[in-house]
Amino acid sequence: TALSDPVDVMKALECGADSFIVKPFDEQNLIHRVQLFLVNQNLRRHEAGQSGLEIVFQGQKYSINSDRLQILNLLLSTYEAAVERNGQLLKAQAELQSLAADLEAQSEELQAQNEELRTLTEELDAERTRVKELNRDLLDHILQLEAANAELEAFSYSVSHDLRAPLRAILGYSRILQEDCGEKLDDKGRQYLEMLQKAGKQMSLLIEALLGLSRVTRAEMQRQNVDLSDLARSIAENLQRSDSGRQVNFVIADGLVATCDLQLVKIVLENLLANAWKFTGKTPQARIEFGVQDSGRGQVFFVRDNGVGFDMQYADKLFGAFQRLHGASEFPGTGIGLATVQRIIDRHGGRIWAEGAVNQGATFYFTLNT
């Protein structure tokens, strides 16, 4: 039965029950009870004629018709069930105590973790505050640097622009002097005059380069889809026309397109291809290549030549203004071209770098954030 209340036990006695087992029951215990009844059946026959009993339990009267052995067995079985139930309760209590201990340990661990998390949160908040302060300082430095660069660009433009007029006068009067008075000068005088004109022309080129550098920094960008292959072919044709006596093999990949400022990127390709043209001037079978390769993070364009190359230990000087790795007498130039190229690439959100070796050519790589 599932009934275990004492009143239920009295009702079982009233019905003449032989034993009382509470579900769920143990199978061996049930078999033992039945065996006990079979063994005691003679004793039960001896007492079968005895009259029943009346029992008052909790104010209620019960008529018990069972014999004494039945009553004893039933009460013992009830007691046994109570003991078993008490054992189950004690076991459950022990399990609850163990569970409570585990929960308490987990609670302490959780509290320790919460304390660690709180400490980490405080450290993170402090780090965030420090990063904000650093960002403010960085922004201030950036604004100061931008202001300084703007002033420097303005100064460079102003000085370069203002130098053009007196330089034109120097070149003009030196030319007049050469034309009108050249016959009156001796060879050394005419040589000095030629050196003056040559230096003036070089200075004029330098001033124009500085003005160009200033313009590419200040010019407003207008992005559009640009066919770099066609642009490179046009520049290559102009270089060939400038010196038809040279035979240079241009290899320009098809279908190179980028979203960029046409005029600025034209300056990039003009400088890179002109440099490749210049530094392959002493190469018998000159080859200049313009192509692209995939870096896994986007397109990387390159201009490669088989000219004189350069020593990689000086690669960091390539893009500095007025930095030259070759003598002006060997390869003329202003030292401004690659600095201008880097400014343009920076404005496009890209980067530029170079690889080379002495007498083994050079390769200039650049990206455009399109």
Give your account of this protein's structure:
- The chain has 370 residues and is of the alpha+beta class.
- Helix content is 59%, strand content 13%.
The arrangement of helices and strands along the chain is HHHEEHHEHEEHEEHEE
Major β-sheet annotation: 5 strands, mixed
Alpha-carbon distance between the two ends: 84 Å
Structural class by SSE content: alpha+beta
Q: What best-fitting shape do the alpha-carbon axes yield? A: rod-shaped
Order the strands across the largest sheet as they lie in space.
4-6-7-9-8
Helix/strand layout:
Layout: H1 6-14, H2 27-39, H3 41-46, E1 53-57, E2 60-64, H4 68-181, H5 187-218, E3 223-227, H6 228-242, E4 249-252, E5 257-261, H7 262-279, E6 287-294, E7 299-305, H8 337-347, E8 352-356, E9 362-366
Parallel strand pairs: 4-6
Antiparallel strand pairs: 1-2, 3-5, 6-7, 7-9, 8-9
Helix pairs in contact: 4-5, 5-8, 6-7, 7-8
